Amino acid sequence: IVDAATDTVVAAITREVELLGRHDYLRDSSQEDMLAAFVNPRSKTVRSILGRARDLLMDRTGSSSTEGYQAGPERVREIAEAIYDAVCECEIDYSNPPALFSQMAQRIRTHDEVVNDKAGTCLDTTVLMSACFAEAGLEPVLFLTPRHAFAGYLSGKGSPTVDQIVRGAPHHSLSGSDFAGFLADLLNGGH
């Protein structure tokens, strides 16, 4: 802090900081909710995947609508499955994360990079699937385990809020009927 009248330093603090690039995710359990910043529902790639999901929905159900929760839980499941199948058609293979010289962070590929390069990590495909769910009006949930990640969505009314999940609601208050998850590493042709 500098006294403007005398131009004298009144107080100073020196701290070490690590600066990360805009595609870098800090792997820190106290910062897990920051992964949501990499979910971009309005990307051109996501809109293209949703177009394919709508085609699949039309073929399967006679309606191409991605109306989120408006038509009930069965339609929510149909939308989610069509999105999953559309992403599987992208034939995304697992690939190590792009080079990053930090042990504390992982570089996250953009949705465009994942689909165009046909390669991604579980974090890359998790944020891609989450963006697709969000663009279709579903509330995505990003599941993180010590060495893996996968995407899911809240299944409908009566589901816990995202805040309850993020803030660690007791496990007994969450049931499998509240949300559904897809293992992102199965996206390569569904295998």
Quaternary state of this entry equals single chain
Structural class: alpha+beta
CA-to-CA gap between the ends? 58 Å
- How much of the residues is beta strand, in percent? 15-25%
What is the tally of beta strands?
9
Name the poorly predicted regions.
162-176
Question: Strand order across the biggest sheet?
Answer: 7-8-9
* General form: elongated
Number of helical runs? 5
Gyration radius, rounded: 20 Å
Percent helix range: 25-40%
Order of helices and strands: EEEHHEEHEHEEHE
Main pleated sheet: 3 strands, antiparallel
Mean pLDDT: 81
Structure description:
This protein is of the alpha+beta class and 191 residues long. It has five helices and nine strands. The chain has helices at residues 44-61, 73-88, 111-117, 122-135, 162-166; strands at residues 2-3, 8-9, 24-26, 93-94, 105-107, 119-120, 140-145, 148-154, 179-182. It has a three-stranded antiparallel β-sheet, covered by helices on one side. A two-stranded antiparallel sheet has the order 1-2. It has a two-stranded antiparallel ribbon with strand order 3-5. Strand 1 (2-3) and strand 2 (8-9) form a beta hairpin. Helix 1 crosses helix 2 (73-88) and helix 1 crosses helix 4 (122-135). The radius of gyration is 20 Å and the shape is elongated. It starts with a strand and ends in a 9-residue tail after the last strand.
Brief characterization of the structure:
The protein is an alpha+beta fold. Helix content is 31%, strand content 16%.
List keywords for this structure.
two-stranded antiparallel sheet, elongated, 9 strands, 191 residues, three-stranded antiparallel beta sheet, alpha+beta
